[in-house]
Design a protein that fits this description.
The protein is about 45% helix and about 20% strand. With about 300 residues, the chain is α/β, with parallel strands linked by helices. It folds into two domains: about 5-135, HUPs (Rossmann fold, 3-Layer(aba) Sandwich), CATH 3.40.50.620; about 145-260, Rossmann fold (3-Layer(aba) Sandwich), CATH 3.40.50.620.
């Protein structure tokens, strides 16, 4: 499933950690790996003459050279691509041009911005990319897929994660947890002061069980030997779905989360404010964000 993996780098600790993760994954699946760095057009425009521009390109090229040390440590070769322009646009366009199967980025993006939340290039790539994106946080120690988590609401968008979960779990014979989180606060609406009727809650839980069982059946179609666990849990009204997913990740020792880009919303690239965005901001394990075919 993964023959060509691109890793966006900028020389920061975050991108080097992502590079190691991407190269370890590439080594495990026998994929070719390419480290990509984009020289911002604005930086080039500030140079005075061709000599300064050449010096800037050489300086940025050293970022790619540093990835060679990681590749040597991992024991897997890596190619280089030094591009110019808008980082998010060039990276996503290049991924499509070379028919990459996966883009790997650090959670802080390749902008070097030091902040806890998503921002900069990573967030822009998530909005633009037609290629799945693996977002690697600072806390990631290295590639692992012994226990994967797929949050699902039963939608077609959520189902895009299942082939990826099967492929990753198959590397080391890992297991996949399928989780449906019921958001009673959202289901009841803002004006529900008296609480939800028990029958309504039961229907929500039944729908959740159907969602995870349907996902399990589909996952077995991709890997008949997959070890699958299913769970339906309620979100804390005060903290929401993403917080419950984070708690599950921590409680169950999940190595990575694999999820669709925007659940039931059929709006293109509406990642900000969605469950996927909040999960990316909250969890301290890598998150693969799949995309819906034909978007």
């Amino acid at each position: 499933m993964y023959d060509q993996i691109l890793v966006g780098v900028d020389g920061s600790d975050e991108s080097e950690r992502a590079a190691r993760y991407g190269l370890e994954l590439a080594a495990r699946v026998g994929a070719s790996a390419t480290a990509v760095h984009v020289v911002e057009q604005g930086a080039l425009e500030l140079t005075r003459g061709s000599e300064e521009a050449a010096e800037l390109r050489a300086e940025r090229g050293a970022v790619l050279d540093a990835v060679d040390e990681i590749a040597d440590a991992v024991g897997h070769p890596v190619d280089h691509e030094l591009l110019e322009g808008n980082p998010a646009k060039r990276l996503t366009a290049h991924a499509e041009e070379v028919e990459a199967d996966l883009v790997v980025l650090g959670r802080q993006g390749i902008s070097g911005v030091k902040r806890r939340v998503l921002g900069g290039v990573t967030e822009q790539v998530l909005h633009r990319s037609d290629v799945p994106v693996f977002v690697v946080p600072d806390a990631a120690e290295g590639f692992a897929a012994d226990r994967l988590l797929v949050p699902t609401d039963g939608s077609e968008n959520a189902a895009q994660a299942l082939p990826h979960a099967a492929a990753l779990a198959g590397i080391d014979g890992g297991g996949v947890d399928l989780l449906n989180v019921i958001d009673l606060a959202a289901a009841g609406g803002a004006f529900n002061a008296g609480g939800l009727e028990p029958e309504f809650v039961q229907r929500l839980e039944a729908r959740g069980r159907a969602a995870v069982e349907d996902a399990a059946d589909e996952l077995r179609g991709h890997d008949s030997d997959a070890e699958i666990r299913t769970a339906v849990e309620r979100a804390d009204p005060a903290s929401g779905v993403a917080a419950r997913i984070r708690s599950y990740v921590e409680d169950e020792g999940v190595d990575a989360v694999v999820m669709g880009s925007h659940g039931r919303s059929n709006l293109r690239r509406t990642l900000l404010g969605s469950v996927a965005s909040n999960v990316l901001r909250r969890v301290d394990v890598p998150v693969l964000v799949a995309v819906r075919d034909g978007e």
